[in-house]
Design goal:
The complex is a heterodimer of chains A (about 140) and B (about 190). Chain A has about 140 residues and is of the alpha+beta class. Chain A has one domain (about 15-135). Chain A has helices at about 1-15, 110, 130-135, and strands at about 20-25, 30, 35-40, 45, 50-55, 60-65, 70, 75-85, 90-100, 100-105, 115-120, 125-130. In chain A, the strands form 2 sheets. Chain A has a 7-stranded mixed beta sheet with strand order 3-2-5-8-9-11-12. The longest helix of chain B is centred in the last third of the chain and has 21 residues, at about 135-155. Chain B contains 4 helices and 10 strands; from the N terminus they run ββββββααβαβαββ. Chain B has helices at about 70-75, 75-80, 100-120, 135-155; strands spanning about 10-15, 20-25, 35-40, 40-45, 50-55, 65, 85-90, 120-130, 160-170, 190-194. Chain B is elongated, with a radius of gyration of 21 Å. Chain B is an alpha+beta fold. In chain B, the strands form 3 sheets. Chain B has a 4-stranded antiparallel beta sheet with strand order 1-2-5-6, with no helix packed on it. Classes of the chains: A alpha+beta (about 140), B alpha+beta (about 190).
């Protein structure tokens, strides 16, 4: 029994899910460890995943802290890192939109550590400001 | 009140032609809502709903305003695919007890119904404390309370993709206070449905 528990714990570390797929239309794939897998509602997402939507396709994703991302057609989006762990005060969100359209809505990280969010675009980086700062002003 | 736990920045972007990006600040329904768009040239702040910039590597355009109609038509597919906001329920306990208050028993029933309606979803059971005591002890105390509620939710038999108990201690306060402040509202367990 102990061995099984240990194995399960290790499995969690090796294949840590950082988010899930809530909606898809058309064809959406993820490139993970040189493999390409189709994504569907309920699929898990991991760090280093590259999400690709085909034409007339879209996807909606929710991350562990409630941050939401949706992509329109012909998009390429990389989850470089998604770590939001308030119990250890560890925050590191690094996302990269290579191509296409996206809508981003921050979850708990936007309140707890907005400065830790990096949303990369080919021309630069988008950062989130305001929420935590505004609470301090009050 | 629980919406304050979630924040509040939405943005979207599109490539027009080669290597040019548009970043728009969308309405998050909250007052604290701002983003910084940085490139080699410097940073541009967007803090008005509908304000946007077109940028390429070297040059950032002036901040302009995009109408709601244009946002809807340019980003229609991505907007339509946006998942619903997570739902938060807050449970309170009787003083010095693992018994839920009467009102929170009702809240728990509502939460279980929400989980069923949101399926397939992941659920976090998150314990919170006030700022009295050491933050590391508070993480442990809050995790204990969360694990109790996790066991209740698990026994209910409601189906979920994942159910996890977490202890955030005093890191994610419902009511902002200074350190070492007793605040009953901050001693709670949150059911966070994604």
């Amino acid at each position: 029994m102990k061995k099984i528990l240990l194995w399960l714990a290790m499995g969690n570390l090796l294949f840590a899910s950082v988010g899930i797929v809530k909606t898809t239309t058309g064809t959406v794939e993820v490139k993970r460890d040189k493999k390409v897998i189709f994504l569907k509602q309920g699929s898990s997402l991991e760090n280093a995943d590259i999400i690709m939507t085909k034409s007339k396709s879209s996807i909606g994703v929710i991350f562990g802290d409630g941050t939401r991302i949706s992509l329109g057609e012909n998009a390429i989006f990389v989850i470089k890192k998604f770590k939001v762990d308030p119990s250890k005060k560890e925050y590191d969100v690094d996302l990269d939109l290579k191509q296409g359209k996206a809508v981003f809505s921050s979850g708990k990280v936007g309140k707890l550590a907005p400065e830790s969010v990096k949303f990369r675009i080919p021309e630069g980086i988008i950062g989130i400001r305001g929420t935590k700062f505004a609470v301090e002003v009050k | 009140m629980f919406y304050k736990l979630l924040i509040a920045v939405l943005l979207s972007m599109v490539f027009v032609g080669c290597s040019k990006t548009t970043v728009v600040l969308l309405d998050s329904g909250k007052s604290e809502n701002a983003i910084l768009v940085a490139n080699e040239e410097g940073e541009t702040k967007l803090d008005q709903v509908g304000s946007y910039v077109d940028i390429d590597k070297k040059k950032t355009g002036k901040v302009k305003s995009m109408s709601q109609d244009e946002i809807k038509s340019r980003f229609s597919k991505a907007l339509a695919a946006t998942p619903k906001e997570p739902i938060t329920y807050i449970l309170y306990f009787e003083p010095n007890s693992t018994m839920l208050t009467g009102a929170s028993e009702g809240t728990l029933k509502k939460a279980l119904k929400s989980i069923e309606e949101r399926t397939p979803c992941e659920v976090d059971i998150i314990g919170h404390t006030d700022t009295i005591g050491s933050s590391s002890v508070n993480v442990i105390v809050s995790l204990k309370r969360a694990k109790y509620i996790e066991s209740v939710v698990r026994k209910s038999g409601v189906k979920m993709l994942a159910l996890r108990a977490k202890g955030y201690g005093e890191e994610d306060l419902l009511v902002q206070t200074a350190d070492e402040v007793a605040e009953a509202k901050n001693r709670n367990v949150e059911i966070f449905i994604k």
